[in-house]
């Protein structure tokens, strides 16, 4: 059944036709001219406060080629690559719809971008049980050109004398090109860049898709319903109004909420065990990050340490402050209904591992903490990339389960290539297609945290 559906979707020319949605003049040009026209009218009418025209500059355009649901790093990266790879400047219109009103969306004229990159190796520790897996992973990383070394417990002790090597069978340590940066700076930078490339932003919430259906019979004689989204409804802020946006392609980059967006498009609403009944298995999972101070803690050369227990930490700034946490087990998963921090989780589940690995952490003081949502793929904790086999013009860039930031540049490019060229070009991400959920083919990654 799947093969039949996929073949139908891959008909040549389908995407090319889909992208030509515009009829007549562009609403964007009109929106740009509104302030000018208002000024002119006001100049020859009495009463300076009178507002002769309703300002629609906050509304999305009535038509666009691509609607990206979600203005997080994945959505912005797809927008960037769509504009970067377009054949001709202005050839493709892209609208990003973001419902969150955090300030970074408003930044227009910022000073030159400083990502606050802090170069530092990642030190991963493996127990006896996971040592062979680590060795294998490092082999693959080296084949791909990464400078990573393996260390025995003795070598580890010599290089980082503050580590207790008990229970460590092997360690891997990144020698270059690793570190951490400020994700908000990256979002700001991407935001500014893609605005300069002509991408339109809109603050609003995608609440509905209008689509048409056609019925197909697969080679095995089963009937499937193919859907195509024609219109996206964007609910405007502080208003009951919505703006319909005609479009050819929808990118589902709604992070932790992308499962809900898929459902809105009818994905997963079918008999269990069928492709039509297969949901996008992405949901919000709450994760805590704790910041602590430890005057006797390890010094400036401290790498990011990922312990075999799952706990991790790194330095934060210069003043013997540290940041870290640990993912809960399936049984310990906290209620994702709010973003309150569970301080007992640090006490009971994180601190014991930290203090065991770094004895100086016996004496530390937690200074603050926060919680955020992983865009958690419950099937195999990996990303979902590419088109849905039945809702043929919805593409996914989601589900990275805690790794979306580092993978966003590559995924954005891959999705843009799929949309523009119809196939992966520079990087083949076909293992991450939606169809794996139906086929039961997990893409498992080991020794990640
Ligand atoms: C504690 C923590 C630590 C992490 N550490 C790392 C790390 O070390 N390395 C790494 O690579 N990644 C890390 N991540 C994961 C990374 O942050 C995410 O994978 C990444 O931010 C996902 O980006 P996104 O664009 O898919 O989702 P988001 O950034 O969540 O963006 C999705 C957006 O969609 C919007 N949206 C949802 N529904 C709608 C709607 N109906 N209409 C309009 N807009 C909508 C939301 O408001 C949201 O802004 C971490 C995450 C957490 C929580």
Automatic annotation (TrEMBL):
Gene Ontology terms: biological process: mitochondrial respiratory chain complex I assembly
- Please give the chief subcellular localization of this protein: mitochondrion
**Xref: Gene3D superfamilies:** D-Amino Acid Oxidase, subunit A, domain 2 (3.30.9.10), FAD/NAD(P)-binding domain (3.50.50.60)
Q: Where does this one sit in the cell?
A: Mitochondrion inner membrane
Give the superkingdom in one word. Eukaryota
Which cofactors must be present for this protein to function?
FAD
Which GO MF terms does the UniProt record name? oxidoreductase activity
User: Pfam families per the record?
Assistant: DAO
List the signal peptide residues.
none
**Keywords of this entry:** Electron transport, FAD, Flavoprotein, Membrane, Mitochondrion, Mitochondrion inner membrane, Oxidoreductase, Respiratory chain, Transmembrane, Transmembrane helix, Transport
How does this chain sit within the bilayer? Single-pass membrane protein
How does it associate, per the subunit comment? Associates with components of the mitochondrial respiratory chain complex I.
Biological function: Required for the assembly of the mitochondrial membrane respiratory chain NADH dehydrogenase (Complex I). Involved in mid-late stages of complex I assembly.
- This chain's protein is named FAD-dependent oxidoreductase domain-containing protein 1
According to its UniProt entry, this protein's organism is Rhinolophus ferrumequinum
Q: What is the lineage of its organism?
A: Eukaryota, Metazoa, Chordata, Craniata, Vertebrata
């Amino acid at each position: 059944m799947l093969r039949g559906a996929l073949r139908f979707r891959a008909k040549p020319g389908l995407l090319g036709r889909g992208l030509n949605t515009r009829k007549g003049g562009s609403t964007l040009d009109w929106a740009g001219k509104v302030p000018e026209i208002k000024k002119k009218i006001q100049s020859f009418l009495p009463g300076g406060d009178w507002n002769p025209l309703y300002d629609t500059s906050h509304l999305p355009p009535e038509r666009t080629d691509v609607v990206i649901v979600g203005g997080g790093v994945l959505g912005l990266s797809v927008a960037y690559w769509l504009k970067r790879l377009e054949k001709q400047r202005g050839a493709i219109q892209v609208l990003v719809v973001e419902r969150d009103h955090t300030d970074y969306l408003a930044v227009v004229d910022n000073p030159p971008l400083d990502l606050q990159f802090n170069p530092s190796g990642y030190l991963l520790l493996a127990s006896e049980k996971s040592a062979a897996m680590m060795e294998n992973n490092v082999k693959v990383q080296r084949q791909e050109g990464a400078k990573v070394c393996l260390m025995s417990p003795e070598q580890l002790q010599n290089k980082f004398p503050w580590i207790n090597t008990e229970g460590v069978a092997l360690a891997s340590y990144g020698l270059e090109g690793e570190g951490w940066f400020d994700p908000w700076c990256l979002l700001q930078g991407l935001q500014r860049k893609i605005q300069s490339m002509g991408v339109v932003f809109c603050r609003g919430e995608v609440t509905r898709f209008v689509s048409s259906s056609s019925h197909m019979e697969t080679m095995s004689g089963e009937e499937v319903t193919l859907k195509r989204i024609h219109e996206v409804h964007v609910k405007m802020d502080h208003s009951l109004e919505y703006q319909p946006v005609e479009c050819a392609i929808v990118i589902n980059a709604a992070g932790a909420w992308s499962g809900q967006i898929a459902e809105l498009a009818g994905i997963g609403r079918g008999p269990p065990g069928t492709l039509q009944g297969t949901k996008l298995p992405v949901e919000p999972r709450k994760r805590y990050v704790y910041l602590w101070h430890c005057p006797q803690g390890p010094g400036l050369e401290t790498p990011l340490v990922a312990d075999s227990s799952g706990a991790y930490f790194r330095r934060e700034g210069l003043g013997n402050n540290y940041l870290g946490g640990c993912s809960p087990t399936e049984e310990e998963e906290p209620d994702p209904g709010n973003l309150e921090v569970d301080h007992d989780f640090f006490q009971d589940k994180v601190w014991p591992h930290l203090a065991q690995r770094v004895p100086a952490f016996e004496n530390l003081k937690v200074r603050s903490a926060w919680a955020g949502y992983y865009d958690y793929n419950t099937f195999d904790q990996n990303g979902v990339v590419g088109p849905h086999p039945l809702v043929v013009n919805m593409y996914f860039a989601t589900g990275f389960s805690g790794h979306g930031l580092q993978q966003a540049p590559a995924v954005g490019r891959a999705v843009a290539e799929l949309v523009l060229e119809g196939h992966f070009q520079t990087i083949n991400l076909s293992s991450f297609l939606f169809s794996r959920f139906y086929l039961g083919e997990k893409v498992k990654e080991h020794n990640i945290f």
